[in-house]
C-alpha cells in the first residue's frame, strides 16, 4: 500500500513538473510574439505610404437601411444588412505622404440638408490633401492608428473623418464618419503601394 502511494505521488510530481515546463515555454512564446508584433507596428508606422484594399463593408443600420439592403442583397449569398462583401470591386484607400485617394462603397442614409441633391457620387470618393493627419502606435491594443480628414471629390459636398486601424498581420479596420451621411466601417488588407514614376 505504501509503495502504491509513493508511486502515485512520484507520478503526480512528474506530471506537475512537465506541465509547469510547458506553461513557461508558452509564456515565453507569447512574450516573443508580442515583441514581434510591436516591432512590426513600429516598422509600419515608419512608412509614409499605405494602400488598403477594402474587402467588407459594415453599414450603420437603421430600419430603413435594413429594409432596403434586405431587398437588394437577398440573392447574394453571405451578405446581410450588417456585413456586405465588396471584395474585388476595386474599393481602396491610398495614402502617399501628404495626400490621400480613395473610393469606398456607401450603404446608408444621406442626412436631409447636406450635400448636393441628385448627385451622381453615390460612394465615398476622395482625392486630395491629408488634413489633421496623425499616426500613433497603440501598444496596449496592438495596432497602428492613422487619423485624418478629407473631402468628397469634385464639389466637396461632404467631408470625412477617417480612422484606420492597422494590425501586425496587416489586417485593417476603417471607420469613415461623413458630415452628411451615416457612418460606415470597412475591413480590408494592407497591400503594396504601386510605384508612380
Structure explained in plain terms:
Helices cover 28% and strands 36% of the residues. It is elongated and about 90 Å long. It folds into two domains: 1-46; 48-191, Lipocalin. It starts with a helix and ends in a 6-residue tail after the last strand. A hairpin with a 4-residue loop joins strand 8 (159-166) and strand 9. Strands 1, 2, 3, 4, 5, 6, 7, 8, 9 and 10 form a ten-stranded antiparallel beta sheet that branches. It has helices spanning 2-46, 63-73; strands spanning 49-59, 84-85, 92-96, 99-104, 124-129, 131-138, 143-151, 159-166, 171-178, 184-191. By secondary structure, it is of the alpha+beta class. It is built from two helices and ten strands. The longest helix has 45 residues, at 2-46.
Highlighted features:
alpha+beta; Lipocalin; 2 domains; ten-stranded antiparallel sheet
